[in-house]
Structures are given as C-alpha cells and as structure tokens.
Amino acid sequence: MHITLNLVQTIGLAIISLLVGKWLTSNISKLEEYSLPPAIVGGLAFALVNMVLRLTGLVTIELDTSLTMFFMVIYFTTIGFDASLKALSRAKQVVGRFLLLAVLAIFVQNILALILSKFFNIPGPVALLLGSPALVGGPGTAAAVSPSIAELGYTNASSVGVIAATLGIVLGSISGGPVAAAAVKKYDLSAANDRSSAMTMGNHPRQGRKKPLTGQRIALMVYLIFLVIFAGSYLTQIINASVSHFVDGISFPVYIGPMIVAAVVRNISDARPDPIVDDQAVAVTSDISLNLFLSLTMISLELWTIIDMALPMMAIIALEALATILFARFIVFKVMGQNYDAAVMTAGFLGFGMGSSSNAMACMRQITHEYGPSPLAFLAVSIVGTLFIDFINIFVIYGFIQWAA
What is the pTM of this model? Predict the structure, then answer.
C-alpha cells in the first residue's frame, strides 16, 4: 500500500510526532535525563516505524516536506539575533578564551572525522556530518547542513547527520557531569574554596526583568524576522556571487545572509536606548520554528538507507566523543584556569560540544547542585554555546565541505 501526504497533512504528522515526543520524554525518565528534544524523540519513533513498514513491504509513505527549508531559515535567523557583542563584552576575557577553545574543537572534530573516514571507507562529505555539524552543532545544524551534502550525490546525508547528532546528545549528557566531577574531586575544588568569580548575574544573558509576553510582541518580532529574511536572502546571493569569482563551486545556504543581517540588527538594537529586538518574543519564535524544522526532518528520515553503515557511524561517533572528552578534560579545564569555574565550564563544554545548549545547562547543573554555584561558568557557556558557536560553526563547516568534496 502506498500513502501520499500533502503539505498540510505532512505538517499535521510532524506536529503529532512532536506531541508523541513530548509525551515520551515526560514519561520516560532517561529521555528527560539526557535532555533529548521531543521533536527528535517523536520523529525518530515515526522514522523507525516507517522503516519497518517499508522493509516489510506493508506500507510506503510519501511526504511533502517542502516547508522544512522555510522553518530552517526562520530558526537560523533567530540564531543571528543572538549574536550580541554587548553580551560578549561581559567577562570578555573568559568568554573570549572559551570561544576560541570551542572554535578549535570544531576543527578537531571535523579533521578527525575526515581522517577516520579513510579507515571506515566512508565518503569524506558524509563523514564530515559526524563531526561538528552533529556534535558542536547538534540536530538543528546537522539537519541544515545535510542538504548541501545530499546535493553532492549522498542521498542518505540527512539520516546520517541527524542520527549522529542524536547519539552525540546522549554521549554528551552521559559524560559532561562525570568528567567535570572527576576534576573537582582530583583537585579538591568547590565553590567554597575557589576564588570568587565576582559575578552576580544569572545563568543566561537573556535573564532580567521580564514583561508579560503578548501576541502583539510575538507578531512584531515575526514581522521583523521575515523582513530580515527578505533582506538577507539578497545578501546571500551577493555573497555567493562574490565568492564564485574567486573559488568555483562554493555556495552558501540561503540562511547565511539572514543570519548576518539579524546579527547587525541585534547590535544596532543593543546600541539604542529603546531596543527593537524583543528577546522573549524571538525565543518563542525560535522554539516553534526549531521544533517544526526538526519534526519535519525527523519524520522524513530514510533510516533504511544507512543500515549498512550503522556500525562504522557508531564507531566514528564513539571516537569523536572520546576525543572531545579528552579535549575538554585536559585542554579546556587547564586553559580556563584549572579551578572550580573551569571544571563547571568543562561540563558545559561537553554538553554543547556533543549535543546542545540545553545539554550544557543540564551538565553544569549536575555539578553546581552538588558542589556550589558558578555564575561565571554559566555566563561563559551561555554566551558561547547559545549565541556565537552555531554562527561560527556554519561558516567553518562549509569550508570543510568544499575541502572534502
């Protein structure tokens, strides 16, 4: 039997899978413990069922996922709104060092992925999806980069990238707390006996006095986001046309321009006495667009196309995870000061270095709940993990794609 779903029906299926994911994560403690996004859980559940139905010959389902790109562009535009230089200026030395380490980790993960691809006989561009797109980037970046890999002829790219990112979230959740706790115990660190960071701010740069969120506030930010996307789409064309004069074959995705325009608008807003960017409203739009983007991506995964490379994938991800853990424990911890704040930052680094910013917060909370608060660590990880690293990661990834192609 063959079932074809149109655009509206596919969106409905994506929302159903999201709601199923929310139910599963709220009722299965391990899923909540690993901070797995409901869109990933529900979408993967559908993808597994779809694979079984297809392989047994019972049902084939055809989806219309043409809106995936639309929600992806909205999400990455909201990432651009997060690129606040004003936020970076707070504790800039610590944040700057942590950001440099995160960027170095991007290169380490991608280079290692390309080296390991030779041993496991996986094409370089596909193996690259097992590096920073999946690990530092997480499911959103992996799903966004996958179409560019697919255009090179690797049709299973989306499945590889998102599955790798899901494995990364689990490994990051498992390793972040224990690795940092081991450093705390070895050096007898705690918030009580470490030098005070002299920071009194909360755990996230967006925190502050919040006004009631209204439909009008959300609507105004949605309008601004669409205007930024409109202007940014032309900037993407200009960038691609300019780059093509120097290097053939390089083409950045459509959301690059909107991300840059959004970053410019954000910093103009920060300089005004009456800001035009409403962080709460942007956050709501970001969450909705990311959930729909991931749900549509997950339900369209063709898992049967990666069965033959499942073991090599898991081996590479495991080795990447080991390298990231060693990098965090022996480089991040040392460079950031080898003190209690550094230990908490190490936990956060593993959280977003193999998953997402929510993973990072969860890993750091494991440590601070037992050993005491670290406002400096939360500030640095929040700014780097939620504001800047995704922005930088995208540009680095596309450089590696051109190299690996």
Answer: 0.72
